[in-house]
Structure formats: structure tokens, C-alpha cells
Amino acid sequence: IADSDGKLLAKVKCKEISKLSVYSSSLVVSTKNQMLLVDHRAHCVQVYSEDGHHLRTIRPRCQPLSIKGLIFDEHNLILVTSCYINGTLYTDGLVAIAKDGTVLERFRFPGRQLLLDVALTRDGCPLVDIKGSSDIFVYNSIYKK
Predict the structure, then answer these.
(1) Cα dist. 51→8, 10, 36 in Å?
(2) Mean of pLDDT over the chain
(3) Three-point CA angle 20, 117, 78, nearest 5°
(4) What are the residues whose beta carbons fall under 8 Å from the beta carbon of 19, sequence distance 6 or more?
(5) For a 10 Å CB count at each end of the chain, is N or C smaller?
(6) What pLDDT sits at residue 131?
(7) What is the dihedral sign for C-alpha 24, 27, 29, 33?
(8) Whole-number Å distance between alpha carbons of 21 and 41
(9) Which is nearest to 65 in space by CA: 35, 102, 95, 86?
């Protein structure tokens, strides 16, 4: 944890997650200042308080997901899922889950494209940056009306 000048204020030890299992886009902060980190090897999300205490583990209540990253909207935790095809890691979709791990919604991206970054609008529309393109792609909301 750093201040606005970049000075280190605190270091959070995440004993529940092995060093090699945390990658970029794997950390979000909730509206309650809780830190949520992807545990890629255990296919779950570890939740820590702002002072570094482990609070809980969130496991999606479905088949194991390959979780690449996290998005936190106002209501749900969104898992960015991925899959390997012929040795290449593709982002394949989004899964909205509740705090208890219940799967609320699923969204699949069309085709096999290398996604660099994914964000959500307030309405739940994915904004996608695709490798090799200078455009931002906007999809329909992941939430069913």
C-alpha cells in the first residue's frame, strides 16, 4: 500500500496465495476497502481487509474456472475467465458471482481474440481492448434484463 507520492506505507503478506499465482489484473479493491486477489492455482478469490488480514475465500459455485482477472462493479464480483487453445491463453468470458460464490450471470466473448484489457460500464457492458486493434469494442450488457 503506497501513498499518493508512491512511498510504501504498508506491505500485505498474502500467505494463502503462492508467489507465482498472482498476475496483473488480479487485484481489485471493493467499496469497503477490501482487497480481492485471484488465486489462479486454487481457482478462487482471496479477500483481505485493508490492514492485510485474510477475511475469506470466495469459490465460484460451478465447475472450476480458469480465472484471469477481476472486475468489481457496484453489486457483484466479475471474474474474467480464460482458456488455453493450442498453447495460447485467450480471454473467453465474464462470470458475475455473488459474495457466496453463486454464479449470477455468464457472458462469452465471440471468437478467439487476444484481449488486452476488459472493463465494464455502469450498465454492465464490457469494453474490450483487443491485441492488434486500435479500437475499443463495446458489447451488450452481461446482465439479462
Answers:
(1) 14, 8, 13
(2) 82
(3) 75
(4) none
(5) C
(6) 82
(7) negative
(8) 6
(9) 95
